[in-house]
Amino acid sequence: MGRAVDTLTAVGRALVRAPGPRLAEGIVTHAVRRPVDVALAVRQHEAYVAALRSAGWRIRAATAADDQPDAVFVEDALVVCGDVAVLGRPGDPRRRGEIDGAERAARDLGLRVERIEEPGTLEGGDVLQVGDTVYVGRGARTNEEGVCQLARLVGGRKVIPVAVRGCLHLKSAMTALPDGGLIGLPDQVDTSVLPGLQVVREPAGAHMVVLGPDHVLMAASAPRTAARLRADGLRVTSVDISEFEALDGCVTCLSVLVP
Ligand code: GLY
Questions:
Q1: How far is the CA of 64 from the centre of ligand 1 (A)?
Q2: For 78-99, what is each residue's pLDDT tens digit?
Q3: Of 139, 169, 178, 205, which has the most beta carbons under 10 Å away?
Q4: Which H or E run contains 41?
Q5: What CATH number should be reported for the domain holding residue 90?
C-alpha cells in the first residue's frame, strides 16, 4: 500500500547513504570539533529520510561505506544533471574513497556516468542548480579546472563560478528557494555574481532542500529563518541535524535529489 501511494505522489528519487560507524572521525574544518553521538546521528538521519519520503520522494539508499567517515554526506560525491551523473573528485583526498560507491548508486539509478578528472577537483556541495543555471563554488574543495570540466559535461547550461570563503562549500553559504530565488550569507560568497541574493543571518538559514513547489526542508538550528519563510507562505519542514552540523554538514549534503 505504502509503495502504491509513493508511486502516485512521487516527485522524484532521493539518494541517501546512512551514517557509518566511523562518522565521529569525519573531517571538521569550520566547526569547533566536539564529540559526535553516532547513535543520535543515526536517528537524526532516519528522521531526515522520513521527511523526504513524506514529501513524496522515493528513497534510494547507496551502499554503506563504513570505512569512509564522511560518506553520509552523499551529495558531495556526485552531481546529477538531467540523465548524467558527474562523479566528483573531492578536493580533500580523504573523501576520494567515497566515489566508487557513488558510481554504483548512479548506475543503479540508470544515469549515464561521467567524471571529474585530475587535476580537477569538485565536490557536489559546491554545485547549486537553479533551472538551467549551475552555480559552482570555487574554494577549498573545488578548483577552477573542476569548474571547467563540469561546465563541459553539463553543456547547454549556464555555469556561473562563485568564489566562496570561510565555509566548506557553496551550499554551506547559499541555496535556492522553490521560486529559484537565492538565499544565503553574503559574507561567504562573491555577491557581485549573485544579484538578488536574499540575505540571512543565521548560518543554517542558508541551507534549503526544495521538497516541492512551496515546500522546503531546513535544519532546526535556523528557527528565525524558518519563521520568516513561513510568514512568506512557504511550508517549512525542520529537522534536527546537530550531529551532522558538528561535522560541517547541512541539510543539502545528506541527499541527492533526482527529479
Ligand atoms: N565533514 C565534511 C567534510 O569536511 O567534507
A1: 17
A2: 999 999 999 999 999 999 999 9
A3: 169
A4: helix 38-54
A5: 3.75.10.10
